[in-house]
Write a structure and sequence with these properties.
heterodimer, A: 502 residues, mainly alpha, two-stranded antiparallel sheet, 1% strand, B: 152 residues, 4 helices, 66% helix
């Protein structure tokens, strides 16, 4: 019953006027960027991070979290009506959602996406509330040795579940770790990789890295490609489901929710992976798999529930272990650090109002999102008709002012542009930026824990094997790597990602 | 370079190796310490070495396994998008948000092949007003609104 009491506290925090407002702003912005292709939650959170300095930490996190799961709602709208993913996590929704829309069932598709997401969001909220306290209690026993091993496992896991070349992704992590330790070394006071640039003494800002790699690079990429957008029939009627549709969709929603809640826990998991996995599962379980790709309602219901559940469940490792498992959670680490909250197992006990307030706000946010996305769908559709050539200068402007306002120096903008350039190069070379961001955020923590672990063991590296928990985690990381690098598995994995994307 | 079968992998590898060498070279100027008492050079040197090895693996794969070519860089988008943002950052303390915004919107719109100057100008003015309302009135950021002779 402890949980209920805590949830009571949480709702007390989340239902204050200020937090309701920031929750709404987050949900609105999330839907907005979800609907608009070409800007994702990572860049948006980076853009808003500087503006949260003045807010209380709970309000800041409530707003930023709302952006992530709000984007899962908005992304489906674009996928269904335009056959273009508003977010990467709604790529699979295009397959059947757009076909449903072409058959005149756009209303049903939108309804099932929103209601499925709401169900998934509600269940995932309970999941976060029930699962986090025991996990964090367990993690409180971790010393630096276990922490270092956990970070290794987390980073390796994140790479394996992502698509693309594994060696490249690991190299991106290492590069990220290196970028993360630029600046003054907390232990020795030595200035590392500063090159006499005064702005680098305090390290590279997470805003510059994230905005450059995920915001600017993406805009450059989009401007280069010619786009064609065709919004399916402006008239959408009957935003509701027939009884048969409901019966078909309900089991898929439940399965998607379960899958998303589980996959959201894993490193590298979160919204995108969950939606892909759910689509594959629904197709396997369907009585008539040939209907998939031609407007099967399960193909919308499953993935759309899964991505929302996955988005919320991915907060669990962040809030209990302090380990971000995807790029959005890396931004949340940045947000917590700005407010002097060290992410880790102590957050639940030392800042209970923050943790429970955030959890409660997720449910409230989901409720707001259903309202924002169903009755107000017409507004979002209008927005889709704004061409990209008018949109991207505006996005760019808000990014530029956002970055500038961090320290009121133009150096930050230059730095962001440099990371944008790097991001463009990486995109051309098929190097995913997400592992780099994870490494960047974890860099200083990883060095600190390695240092402490080796100090305690008097320099003996075997300490990582002598500690049982750390040994198990490192063994798991090594096993994962070996398995994925086996020629057979590697081929299957590449095929799997190919099939899902194609 | 006929012996490079997958240019994407090859050049990604070379990029990683370069970053790794720079990391090792620069951090060799920092004290290494011992494993028990790690100096500031210990971790970065280790990471740099690892990056060189990983980069070499990626580059080797680029020589052995065939892969797609690197898509061409479009200088226009790069220069107009990233360049304008840099100039905006340097100029905004003097031009103020309104003039800065109109200029930024106008010039970045050039990056697109669908540029239309009336539309760019209109959206520049609309966004300038929006930016002032959101950032200066709403979020109370410390930014000048007008160009420098008219400030205060």
């Amino acid at each position: 019953m402890d949980v209920l009491q805590h949830l009571g506290t949480g709702f007390g925090v989340a239902l204050t006027q200020v937090n309701l407002m920031y929750g709404l702003v987050g949900a609105l912005l999330g839907t907005l960027i979800g609907v608009l292709p070409g800007i994702g939650p990572v860049a948006t959170i980076a853009m808003l991070l500087p503006t949260t300095y003045a807010l209380p930490p709970v309000s800041a996190l409530i707003m930023l979290a709302g952006i992530y799961y709000g984007a899962q709602y908005g992304g489906s709208t674009t996928a269904i009506l335009v056959n273009m993913p508003g977010e990467t996590s709604s790529v699979v929704t295009c397959l059947d959602g757009y076909q449903m829309a072409r058959r005149g069932q756009a209303g049903a598709a939108l309804a099932v996406a929103a209601l499925g997401s709401f169900f998934a969001g509600s269940v995932a909220t309970v999941f976060v509330a029930a699962f986090s306290p025991p996990l964090s209690e367990f993690a409180l026993k971790f010393g630096p040795t276990e922490y270092f091993a956990l970070m290794v496992l987390g980073l390796i896991g994140a790479v394996i579940l992502a698509s693309g070349s594994i060696v490249k992704a690991i190299a991106m992590i290492v590069l990220g770790l290196l970028l993360g330790i630029v600046g003054t070394d907390v232990n020795s006071g030595a200035q590392r990789f500063v090159f006499d640039v005064p702005e680098l003494v305090d390290g590279i800002g997470v805003v510059a890295v994230a905005m450059g790699l995920f915001g600017f690079a993406e805009i450059v990429g989009n401007v280069e490609s010619r786009e064609k957008r065709q919004v399916v029939s402006a008239k959408i009627k009957g935003l509701w489901l027939s009884r048969k549709q409901f019966r078909d969709a309900a089991p898929a929603v439940v399965r998607g929710t379960a899958l998303g809640s589980f996959l959201g826990l894993l490193p590298g998991g979160g919204a995108m992976l969950s939606s892909f996995a759910s689509y594959t599962l629904e197709k396997k379980l369907a009585k008539d798999p040939s209907q998939f790709g031609k407007g099967a309602i399960q193909g919308v219901a499953g993935p759309e529930s899964a991505n929302n559940a996955g988005a919320q469940a991915s907060f669990i490792p962040l809030l209990t272990l302090g380990i971000p498992e995807n790029a959005v959670m890396a931004m949340m680490v940045g947000a917590m650090t700005i407010h002097n909250i060290q992410p880790g197992p102590q957050v639940i006990t030392s800042n209970p109002e923050l943790f429970w307030g955030l959890v409660a706000s997720m449910w409230i946010g989901n409720l707001m999102l259903v309202v924002l996305n169903l009755p107000m769908i017409g507004m979002w559709i209008k927005l889709l008709t704004v061409p990209y050539r008018l949109l991207y200068p505006a996005i760019l402007l808000f990014c530029a002012i956002g970055v500038y306002s961090v320290n009121n120096t133009s150096m930050d903008i230059t730095m962001t542009a440099l990371f944008g350039l790097l991001g463009v190069v990486f995109a051309k070379l098929d190097c995913e930026p997400a592992p780099l961001l994870l490494g960047f955020v974890l860099g200083p923590m990883m060095e600190e824990n390695l240092r402490r672990a080796l100090l305690l063991s008097r320099g003996d590296p075997m300490t990582f094997i002598h500690h049982p928990i750390s040994a198990v985690m490192l063994a798991a990381a090594a096993t994962l790597l070996v398995i994925v690098l086996l020629p057979n598995v590697r081929k299957r994995r590449e095929e799997a990602f190919h099939e899902e994307i194609a | 370079m006929g012996w490079v079968r997958s240019p994407k992998d090859f050049w990604a590898g070379i990029l990683f190796v370069t970053f790794g060498i720079v990391a090792v070279a620069v951090s060799s100027g920092y004290s290494m310490g011992t494993a028990a008492r790690m100096g500031p050079g210990y971790f970065p040197r280790g990471l740099g070495g690892l990056l060189v090895i990983l980069g070499a693996l990626v580059a080797l794969r680029g020589i052995r396994v065939p892969g797609p070519a690197i898509p061409a860089f479009r200088a226009r988008a790069l220069v107009f998008v990233l360049g304008t943002v840099v100039v905006f950052g340097i100029a905004v303390p003097w031009t103020g948000v309104i003039l800065g915004t109109v200029l930024l919107i106008f010039v970045t719109s050039f990056a697109s092949h669908e540029f239309r100057w009336q539309a760019a100008l209109t959206s520049g003015i609309v966004l300038a007003i929006a930016a002032v309302l959101v950032f200066i009135v709403g979020l109370k950021l410390q930014l000048p609104i007008w160009p420098w002779p008219f400030n205060r």
